[in-house]
Design a protein that fits this description.
Helix content: 25-40%
Distance between the termini: 49 Å
Largest sheet: 7 strands, mixed
Order of helices and strands: HHHEHEHEHEHEEEHEEHEEHEEH
Bound molecules: pyridoxal-5'-phosphate
Structural class: alpha/beta
Number of helices: 11
Number of strands: 13
């Protein structure tokens, strides 16, 4: 319904404008946007994409994975990308798609689980910390989310999860990196429960997928979360988060082709005759998949491990700095490059507002602030941020 309040209208110009005029106008109009290079963005799970990935993306912009008969080589590269991501997640035989992001990946996972279960009015057991994409998925797929509480470590409470299972349950979801605190749920135990009840288990590693595989070699505590656990059926892993790929690039990986088939649709009119699609989108970016393919090859495991090592090192510097500020503390010890900051003395929403006035963007959760240390964050940014935080706390307490 059109809004009654006066809305600024825009018309396409009758006669086209010169490109440099438009570029100048765009520069001015887009100026208020924050930039990753300023170091002020401390809340996003995305980052400035790697320069090589940007170069490849620009070069292959015309590729459309929605029509694989026109772009069979791009479709082949997409499958090679999925296999490389699968090998990172202990299953090079995984099948799936490069999609628009974690939201689409999570929707596709629940779509597959629902279709495989063949149950009317199904239910999905998720932790209360699950990303809101699962709410979207439940609405779209007519599934009821059963949200279970967390334990004292902010992980899904496994006993509560098992209790929540009924004859209507079509899937359990575990998080390998929660949106708020980067916490990893006890996926091994969830996998055992899934096996005992013969239920589909989806792991949302949208953020953690490019972090957790490197923890062991970097000397941090390794955590089980991937296809090495026998009952993990699908995993979301987003190249456009810690994978340094240009947006849009999410990933949905299934353990085997049968699961992927559960969401396959025949598309009768495309040039190759009858083709199948197993994504929500029809026309979709081939450049995204090709850029991820190129970046995985270029950085390799060692390159990604170095990115994670740097981010985790800075995360711990931030944690130490926060703990030195009177009135502030961390919510829980970080598993990844995500930190929750709480205060017993000051309302965190006031801190949030004061930070924003000084140009810093952090995320505001009900009881804490979330800071994500991404590859665009430099040691100087952490230093300046901590100095501002200290001053803000002093002012708010006085
Ligand atoms: C754990 C998790 N899953 C899914 C998503 C959704 O990803 P996207 O914004 O790419 O759709 C996010 C976004 O931050 C997330 O943190």
């Amino acid at each position: 319904m059109p809004s009654k309040t006066a809305q600024k209208t825009n018309r396409m110009p009758e006669k086209g404008l010169p490109q440099d005029t438009i570029i100048r106008e765009l520069e001015a109009k887009l100026h208020p946007d924050l930039t990753y290079s300023s170091g002020k963005i401390l809340c996003s799970m995305c980052t400035n994409p790697h320069s090589f990935a940007k170069q490849i993306y620009r070069k292959y912009l015309e590729k459309n994975l929605g029509d694989p008969s026109l772009f069979p080589a791009s479709a082949e590269l997409e499958q090679e990308t999925i296999s490389m991501l699968g090998s990172l997640l202990s299953n090079p035989k995984a099948c799936g798609s490069i999609v628009s992001g974690g939201t689409e990946a999570n929707i596709i996972a629940l779509w597959a689980a629902r279709n495989l279960a063949k149950r009317e009015r199904g239910e999905v057991v998720v932790p209360v910390s699950a990303h809101y994409s699962f709410d979207k998925a439940s609405d779209l797929l007519n599934l009821k989310l059963i949200k279970v509480k967390l334990n004292s470590s902010y992980q899904m409470d496994v006993k509560a999860a098992e209790k929540a299972i009924t004859s209507k349950t079509v899937a359990i979801v575990g998080l390998a990196g929660s949106t708020g605190l980067g916490v990893v749920d006890p996926i091994r135990e969830l996998s055992e429960i899934a096996s005992a009840h013969n239920i589909y288990l989806h792991v949302d590693a949208a953020f953690g997928g490019f972090v957790l595989p490197f923890l062991k070699e970097l000397g941090y505590k390794p955590l089980d979360f991937d296809f090495s656990l026998p009952n993990v059926c699908s995993i979301t892993i987003d190249p456009h988060k810690m994978g340094l790929a240009p947006i849009p690039a999410g990933g949905i990986l299934f353990r085997d082709a049968k699961m992927c088939e559960a969401v396959s649709m025949k598309v009768p009119y495309l040039t190759g005759g009858e083709m199948k699609q197993s994504t929500l989108l029809g026309t979709r970016s081939g450049a995204s998949a090709v850029a991820v393919w190129a970046l995985l090859k270029h950085l390799g495991r060692a390159g990604y491990a170095a990115v994670v090592e740097r981010c985790l090192g800075l995360t711990w510097k931030l944690v130490e700095g926060i703990q030195r500020i009177d009135g502030l503390d961390i919510v829980t010890e970080p598993t990844m490059n995500v930190v929750g900051v709480k205060s017993d003395t000051v309302d965190v929403s006031l801190i949030f507002r004061e930070l924003r006035k000084r140009g810093w963007a952090v995320s505001l959760f009900p009881d804490y602030l979330r800071i994500v240390i991404m590859p665009h964050t430099k040691p100087l940014h952490i230093k300046l941020f901590l100095e501002d935080l200290q001053k803000i706390l002093e002012n708010l307490r006085s």
